[in-house]
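FIELD: query
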Amino acid sequence: MKTFHCNHCNQLVFFENFRCERCESLLGFIPEIAEISAFEDAGDGLWRSRHPEHRDTLYKRCHNYEVEKVCNWMVPAESTDPLCHACRLTHTIPNLGVANRRYYWFRLEAAKRRLLYTLGALGLRVESRQDNPKTGLQFKFLEDKRGKRVLTGHDRGLITMNIAEADDAQRERVRLAMGEPYRTLLGHFRHEIGHYYFDRLVANTPWITGFRKLFGDERANYREALAKHYKDGAPPHWGKSFVSAYATTHPWEDWAETWAHYLHIVDTVDTAMACGVALMPGNSLDPTLAVEVPPGEATFDHLMKQWFPLTYALNSLNRSLGMPDAYPFALAPPVVEKLRFVDRVIAAAGHAQPLPEVVIEAVVKPVKPSATRANKHA
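FIELD: result
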């Protein structure tokens, strides 16, 4: 992700910020140009942008920004929809009458917005259920009820998230219980959207032949594979061919885990480059990292050349702070080839562009979820 500045005082700000800490200007994200902008009050619930490309353009805050305080995206003043592009994709929110549920909702929406930003930067259009009832995307944020457990998973464009994943303590307990080295809320979103894009970009396309050579035959019975994984665990030496133990479950899960890692890599490397991170160690044998990409080298191979030294630095910094490794994975050559395949599929799907402005009604009809794919982590 690129760096953002308050265009009133030039203070560095984060993607999630609501207000500039230096000049106290209201901040908001403009999906049409994928930029954070400072705004000044224009009266009547409208805000005037200070962004150079949209100076004096009027916007209103997303309803979930102005009223619910869980969003920081803006909506064009002339729009008849009170919700921003990201919030329109959410069908079901937590029960706000219960303690901590608003905080969980805030964290879920923040992770979803970061996911959407990365997809937009990669040129992947996100269709809504309103745009395409058959294959459009929709999110449900649900919680366990007595005798009824909510499984985080994807089913034909419906992504269900168990809101307990927004609770750091609960998520860490699950991670330890399952012996996972890594479990994050953003990782869940990236994993589940991988299932969605498998259906959109790979299934029933010419890509499926190459997919089966690398990932296996996705026509294998998913329920049986899932049951076997939970009964027997991952096979020995899984790290030689898979990015995670869970990726061994079924080709669908291998794809989703690999897809999630590709998004991890792209977003982290982009952020490092935007921040000017460079590695110039005193020992010539140590890994280096250049700030600028040489002309003609913006390729997958160069991406991986950047990734390996960056993960070494990230993990070393975390260890200096007494924290676990930021990236506790080792990418074997077969995994790198799977990542290369994901890169090729995404490159063929479209060109990088700002997030699309999607027209969708605030209220949509509920869709009954199924257990086609119930995924435990990313």
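FIELD: remark
Confidence is low (pLDDT under 50) at residues 352-378.
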